[in-house]
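dumping this here before i forget
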Amino acid sequence: MVYSEKSLTAVLPELFRIKIFFLANLLCASNAFALAEKEPEKVTVWGASVIVRPSSSADVGQPNPSNPEAPQFNGSHFSLTSSQEKLIDQFLENSLKPPEVTWDKIFSVGTGTLALIVSISLGIYTKRKDSRARKHSIEDDYWLRKVIGPIAIEPLLKTVVEMTAAVPAPFGDANFDQSKITPFLDSYKSKVLELSLGLSALSLIDQGLAKTAREGLDKIEDLLIEYCAANELGINREDDTKPGDKAMFLGQVRTEVLEILQQIKLFQSKLA
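structure:
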């Protein structure tokens, strides 16, 4: 049987090993060596483990009746049977055959690679997003504390405290003085306008927060105008509730101020 150069290259190392072993037995055989008990040697032949036991020189090259399928050495080369040749062919075919590639394997590898890429990309995106969020949080917190607080929040609280103390007595009160109504209205309308300009700085960090603050100041201005007009004209509502009630007016103003401050506090808590 004729084998290709690649086939011989793959099988020759094992055949050469076996041949060297048998030649060593031929050169070193003796009666004492043949009778001595030695540990069997385990070698690999054609991809399978084979136990080789020491034998006498008389046994070398002789057929082994207990294993007729074993290769027979005739002094210069091994004589192989057809089944042994088939075994060698099968061994060479399995060894030299390239790995089988199927669409299932390609899909599996592609899916795993894509999942790895997506996982790495999400990790990088999340890290960068968190970094930007922390940076914006620090910047917004700085603007609230160092800029918006001094020019908007502090003046708002100061103005409300002053207005609470300066509100003129309502119509029907023993201390009511109509001449004080108009100066009070003009003074605090201008102060509310100043507060509106200051709170517009909230748009530097959040447009929605600035809008909420402006709406709150507009309600405070409406309450101020309504209180002063009702008391100056000395009129009552249809339900007999005085629109110029001082306690009601101050309570409504405080409610609007607290709503503005609550929205600012809520926004600041989100930055933490």
